[in-house]
Amino acid sequence: MSSIYDSRQRWKLGFIFAAVLIAIASVVVSDFLIKDLAREEREKMEIWSEATRVMTSENPALNMNLILKIIQGNNSIPVILCDERDSVVSFNNIELPDGDAGAFMRDKVNELKAKNPPIAIDMEDGTFQYLYYDDSIILKRLLVYPYAQLTVVFIFIVTAFLALTSTKKAEQNKVWVGLSKETAHQLGTPISSLIAWVELLRSQEVDPSLLDEMDKDVKRLQTIAERFSKIGSDPDQNPSNIVESVRMALAYMETRISSKVKIHAFLPERPVMVLMNDSLFAWVIENLVKNAVDAMEGQGTITIRMEEREKVVLIDLSDTGRGIAKTRFKTIFNPGYTTKKRGWGLGLSLVKRIVESLQGGRIFVKSSELGKGTTFRIKLRKYRA
Q1: String of b and e for 211-239 (b: at least 16 CB within 10 Å)?
Q2: Which of the residues 129, 277, 278, 303 could staple to 121 if both were Cys, CB 3.0 to 4.6 A apart?
Q3: DSSP letter at 105?
Q4: Angle formed by the axes of helices 4-55 and 64-72, to 10°?
Q5: Cα angle vertex 217, ends 216, 223, to 5°?
Q6: Handedness of CA 26, 28, 31, 35 (dihedral sign)
Q7: Using one digit for the tens of pLDDT, what is the confidence trace for 150-168?
Q8: Model confidence pLDDT, tens digit, residues 357-368
Q9: Buried (b) or exposed (e) across 172-185, using 16+ Cβ within 10 A?
Q10: pLDDT at residue 343 tops 60
Q11: How many CB atoms lie within 10 A of CB 317?
C-alpha cells in the first residue's frame, strides 16, 4: 500500500513534535527561573526579618541607617509582621480598603500563611515575631509567563500547520486542474480522428452493428474528455432526477465489470430531483463501483441504496471487499492514495471533489470492517423548485 501523503504526514507530525518539545523546554526553563526567583525572594525576606530584629535591639554598635535602608528598600513584596498572637505589628506594600481594615488584615494574614511558610524572628527577650509575605508582582507575572508561552506556541503550531496544509492543497489543486485540462486536450485529437474513421468505415459497407458499438465507445471517450475539461471550473448544474442518473450509471457499469460481481440496487420508484451535473455525477457512481470491484478483487456483491428524506437524499454504496482501516477513512480521499500497483490514486479524490461541488454535497466512509466490506455514503440536498 502506498500514498504520496504518508511522507507529508510524517513531516507534519515531526513538525508538531518539534514544536511541542520547544514548548516543554520553554516551560521547564521558566519553572527553574520561577523557583530561583522565589528562593531569592525568601532570602530577601529573611534579611528583612533580621533587620527588623536588629532594629528592636539596643546594641548601639549596629548601623541603624543601613538597617532602615534594607527595610525601606522592599517596595514590591507584600509583608505583614505579627506577634505571637498574630496581632499585626507592622506591614508594608499592602493597600488598606476603605472599610473594616482590621478584618481585612486578619484575612490577609491567613491568606499569606497559606502561601509561604512564615519566618520566625527571635526578639531576644523570650518572645517571637512572625513575618508573613506574599509573592512579588514580578514573581506573579512570571508565574503566568509559561501559560502565555504555551498559548503563543500553540497559536504558532496551528497557524504553521494550517499554512502548510493550505499551501500544499493549493499546489495539489493546480496540478490536479492542469492535469485534467491537459488530459481533455490530449484526448481531443484521437477522438476526432476516431469519429472520422467511423464515418469512413460506414461508407465501406462494414457491418453496421460493429460500427454502432464503435460509435458508442467514441461517444464514451467524448464524455470522458468533457468531464476532465470541467475539472477546476464550476460545472453547469441543473435539476436532475438522481434516481435515473444512478440507474443509468449502474446499467453502464454492469456490462463492463466481471460477471462474478453482482449489483443490487434499491432505488425509489418516483423521481428525486437534485441540482447537479448529470454527467459528472454519473462519473461518481462509476468510480465508486470500480473502487468496489477492485476491493473485492472482481468477485462479490455491490449494494446501492437510496433513501429520501425531507430535505436530503442519502445514497449508500456497499461492497463485500477487504474493508478499510479506520485510520484511513479520510486519507483514502487524498490524491495519490492507492492500494494498486498501477494508477495514480485519483478516483476517490475525484469523487469527493465532484460531490462537494454540489449543494450540501458530502461523501464519507459510513462504515467498514476489515475482511467484510465497506459502505460509502453520499449526502445531497434535494432540489426545491
Answers
A1: beebbeebeebbebbebbbbbbeebebee
A2: 129
A3: H
A4: 140
A5: 90
A6: negative
A7: 777 778 777 777 776 666 6
A8: 888 899 999 999
A9: beeebeebbbebbe
A10: no
A11: 26
Helix/strand/coil for 308:
strand
Angular region, 371: left φ>0, alpha ψ -120 to 50, beta rest: left
Q: Which residues contact 229 (CB under 8 A, 6 or more apart)?
A: 180, 181, 184
Side chain identity at residue 14, one-letter code? G
Amino acid code (one letter) for 275: L
| 65 or 25, greater pLDDT | 25
Cβ atoms of 272 and 382 closer than 8 Å: yes
- Cβ proximity of 217 and 197 under 8 Å: no
> Around Cβ 158, how many Cβ atoms within 10 Å?
12
Question: Contact 375/365 with Cβ under 8 angstroms?
Answer: yes
Q: pTM for this one?
A: 0.51
The beta strands (E) that lie in the chain are given as: 79-82, 88-92, 119-122, 128-133, 238-241, 261-266, 273-276, 300-308, 312-319, 362-369, 373-381
Cβ contact 366:376 at 8 Å: yes
Query: What are the two backbone dihedrals, phi and then psi, of residue 246, each rounded to the nearest 5 degrees?
Result: -65, -40
Tens-digit pLDDT profile for residues 61-110: 555 555 555 655 667 788 888 888 888 888 888 888 888 888 999 899 99
